[in-house]
Write a structure and sequence with these properties.
Length: 352
């Protein structure tokens, strides 16, 4: 079992064994998470660098922030640990260029939940991981699945670049949105994914339901969908039932259900639809995908809408979510694709 997992040593163990100095590229939440693991594993961090525009006079967690050229001027051979997410081509190219000159790792730390994704973690969940691998609908999905898992263990970016697929190809070859879709957008943000949907349907659809819990994002969403017909926007979280949940507002897309947040309304998809037939559901809800799926279980079981589900927020998502969807409706064909992103964010499940 798990013959497709070839990486056995985690990037954490490789970093712990390093004799060369280790420098972190980036500041922010990802850096704090990585530094916390470094502390637990007694991995020595020699310093931090950032892109030139962020360097001037900055310090982070007691380290003066350098530029890469500064470090290269006084250290000849060192290891780079990437501590932020890159989702556009020029930045991804820059990271690959750095990796061509220095050993570079991208440690996998979950967006939500705890724990580390290691080979040992895979062995503990081997049966479920293998089951998902075996049920995937095409060879490329199996390659993506294997590469994402090997990346999460090793932190080696070449696993991602080998399986990156443009979003346009995913829509054209897998999702294939029609002109009479009833689209449910969970985690609608500012309406960007609704705009994408409308591009592929040439502005035609039966109806759109958009859920966005963050107040600032919701305000932008309402502005961007103003004038569209048959669209219903809800300033609420998505959950397995109608309730209230504590919700923490953060910048941009990172707002999420959190014990430290303020209470907001939460709705289930089945409740909002009230028996209507959804044809396409997108779920990108910062770690609440499992609850969102359960909240749409009647719709999934009886109407089999096309599903686009994020697989990267929690360690277990990459195997738990495909198995859950398949258990609710065995008729689905499951595909996995990874869009341009470092680390393995924008790795999504497509259930058709």
């Amino acid at each position: 079992m798990l013959s497709f997992i070839t990486e056995k040593q985690s990037c954490w163990d490789r970093l712990k064994a390093e004799k060369r100095p280790i420098f972190m590229y980036g500041m922010g939440d990802g850096a704090l998470k990585i530094m916390s693991v470094f502390k637990k594993k007694n991995i020595t961090l020699s310093g931090i660098f950032a892109s030139d525009e962020f360097v001037r006079g900055h310090s982070f967690e007691g380290f003066r922030v350098h530029s890469l050229s500064e470090i290269e001027s006084y250290v000849s051979d060192f290891v780079v640990v990437l501590a932020f997410a890159a989702g556009y081509q020029s930045l991804v190219d820059k990271i690959h260029e750095i990796a061509s000159r220095h050993a570079l790792y991208v440690p996998d730390v979950p967006v939500a939940g705890g724990g580390l994704f290691t080979y040992e973690y895979c062995c503990e969940n081997a049966e479920e991981i293998q089951k998902v691998y075996d049920m995937l609908a095409d060879d490329f999905s199996r390659k993506v699945y294997a590469n994402i898992i090997n990346f999460k263990i090793s932190g080696k970016i070449e696993y991602l670049s080998a399986v990156t697929t443009p979003k346009s190809e995913i829509y054209r070859k897998i999702v294939k949105p029609g002109l009479n879709e009833l689209y449910v957008d969970l985690g609608a943000y500012n309406g960007d994914t609704i705009e994408e949907f409308l591009d592929y349907t040439r502005g035609r659809y039966l109806g759109i339901y958009a859920l966005e819990p963050d107040k600032k994002n919701f305000k932008k969403l309402c502005k961007n969908i103003n004038g569209l017909k048959h669209i219903f926007a809800y300033n609420c979280a998505v959950w397995c039932k109608d309730t209230e949940l504590p919700f923490a507002t953060k910048a941009g897309r990172q707002s999420s259900v959190s014990a430290n947040g303020s209470l907001i309304e939460a709705r289930s998809v089945d409740s909002i639809l009230g028996g209507q037939t959804a044809t396409l559901i997108k779920m990108d809800v910062e770690g609440s995908e499992r609850e969102a799926i359960w909240g749409a279980c009647q719709t999934i079981a009886h109407h089999a809408p096309k599903l686009m589900v994020s697989l990267y927020h929690r360690n277990e998502d990459i195997f738990k979510l495909p198995l859950l969807i398949k258990s609710l409706n065995p008729n689905y064909s499951l595909y996995i694709r990874h869009q341009l992103y470092i680390p393995a964010w924008e790795t999504n499940l497509y259930a058709i």
